[in-house]
Write a structure and sequence with these properties.
Helix content is about 35%, strand content about 25%. The chain contains three helices and five strands. The protein has a five-stranded antiparallel beta sheet with strand order 1-2-3-5-4, covered by helices on one side. The radius of gyration is 15 Å and the shape is globular. The model has no long low-confidence stretch (mean pLDDT about 90).
């Protein structure tokens, strides 16, 4: 499905992920984690890949392959190298923490695998999670 790169479509994205996972027998706890990871990834696309771009869109596919769910997000916005995102210092006081990186950290913690590719034709984020 293709969505406008606007925050008001995050509910639809979370619903799509939940419906797919629920139909495959994922637990409600895991479904919540999947929704959170998808929400964070979509938010990053909207905020960073398409910062200042009007009428941008991105696509999301969500499918079951064997015992896992595969969520793929594609955009044509600014590229991003997740390897450059350092793990946040979760022990530091809130006032002392660096801004940014928490969403990427959450996605990595919530999903089994996270792969990011960038090319001249756009960016592809692939996230997988095994059924519990």
């Amino acid at each position: 499905m293709t969505f406008p790169a606007k925050f008001e479509f995050l509910d639809e994205i979370r619903d799509m992920v939940a419906e797919t996972a629920r139909s495959a027998g994922f637990s409600e706890k895991t479904i919540y984690s999947l929704q959170l990871a998808a929400d964070e990834a979509a938010t990053n696309i909207i905020e960073h890949a398409y910062a200042g771009v009007k009428n941008a869109t991105f696509s999301i596919s969500c499918e079951i392959k064997g015992d896992q769910i595969v969520i793929v997000m594609r955009d044509t916005g600014k590229s991003f190298d997740a390897k450059n995102v350092k793990q946040p210092n979760l022990k530091a006081d809130l006032a002392e923490r660096q801004i940014g990186g928490l969403g990427v950290y959450l996605i990595r913690k919530l999903m089994d695998t996270v792969q990011y590719e960038s090319s001249a034709s756009g960016n592809i984020l692939t996230m997988t999670k095994r059924r519990d």
